[in-house]
């Protein structure tokens, strides 16, 4: 991945924070993502004492929701401003907010977390590095753990000309190629969005899948 693929995140957050306007962050909902909230209420496993990581956590609402459900949460973002903003918004939070690059994560994070949650990170990065993005996310999950992925999807093999680049189901299947097993897949439609089709997939990491095979 080149620096150009991710360098634009920090200036966007910095400008928005300077103006006190989270509305400048296109993906900032300022509340828990509905796809995560629904999963927590309907399908989440016992959370007490279990670890979770939120990939590219943005302004922290999803991380806080997981912490409120009892997970011990680590949340990271490549933008230092985003992390500072999270800490400002949630000064008494139990979440461990950290600045980190998905492609240069701390070695001790590999195969560590009981739950890995990602919403729209993959689609924000170029199609040509998509397999590597998926591999980095999958490698965060501990054997026996869960990866929960929510993203926009597209039917055409041709991606849009600019970000975001919704995934095809074939691209998403790279998680399965890495050994993760689909527990459930839920499809959603937002007719008011130019990216109307969305999917949430819950994967299980087999106990036998570990560092040797991954």
Concise overview:
With 214 residues, the chain is α/β, with parallel strands linked by helices.
Describe this structure in words.
By secondary structure, this protein is α/β, with parallel strands linked by helices. It has one domain: Vaccinia Virus protein VP39 (Rossmann fold, 3-Layer(aba) Sandwich), CATH 3.40.50.150. It contains seven helices and seven strands. The protein has a seven-stranded mixed beta sheet with strand order 3-2-1-4-5-7-6, with helices on one face. Helix 1 crosses helix 4.
Low-pLDDT regions: none
| CATH architectural group | 3-Layer(aba) Sandwich
* Secondary structure: number of strands: 7
Amino-to-carboxy terminus distance: 20 Å
- What would you call the structural class? alpha/beta
CATH class placement: Alpha Beta
Number of domains: 1
In round numbers, the mean pLDDT is: 88
Strand fraction equals 15-25%
The radius of gyration is 16 Å
Order of helices and strands: HHEHEHEEHEHHEE
List the strand order in the largest sheet: 3-2-1-4-5-7-6
Number of contiguous helices: 7
Q: Name the CATH homologous superfamily.
A: Vaccinia Virus protein VP39
Shape: globular
Enter the CATH topology name.
Rossmann fold
Largest sheet: 7 strands, mixed
Query: Considering DSSP H and I runs of 4 or more, what fraction of the residues is helical?
Result: 25-40%
Protein name: Class I SAM-dependent methyltransferase
Organism: Vasconcelosia minhoensis LEGE 07310
Keywords: Methyltransferase, Phosphoprotein, S-adenosyl-L-methionine, Transferase
GO molecular function: S-adenosylmethionine-dependent methyltransferase activity
């Amino acid at each position: 991945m080149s620096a150009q693929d991710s360098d634009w995140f920090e200036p966007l957050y910095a400008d928005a924070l300077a103006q006190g306007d989270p509305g400048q962050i296109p993906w900032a909902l300022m509340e828990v993502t509905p796809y995560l909230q629904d999963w927590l209420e309907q399908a989440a496993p016992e959370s007490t004492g279990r670890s979770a990581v939120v990939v590219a956590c943005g302004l922290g609402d999803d991380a806080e929701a997981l912490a409120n459900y009892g997970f011990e949460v680590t949340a990271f973002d490549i933008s230092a401003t985003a992390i500072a903003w999270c800490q400002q918004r949630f000064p008494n939070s139990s979440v461990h907010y950290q600045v980190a690059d998905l492609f240069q994560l701390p070695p001790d994070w590999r195969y560590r977390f009981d739950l890995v949650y990602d919403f729209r990170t993959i689609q924000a990065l170029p199609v040509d590095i998509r397999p590597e993005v998926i591999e980095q996310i999958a490698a965060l999950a501990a054997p026996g753990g869960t990866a929960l992925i929510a993203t926009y999807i597209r039917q055409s093999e041709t991606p849009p000309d600019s970000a975001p680049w919704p995934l095809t189901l074939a691209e998403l299947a790279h998680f399965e190629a890495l050994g993760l097993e689909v527990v459930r897949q839920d499809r959603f439609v937002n007719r008011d969005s130019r990216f109307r089709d969305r999917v949430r997939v819950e994967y299980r990491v087999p106990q036998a899948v570990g560092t040797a095979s991954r």
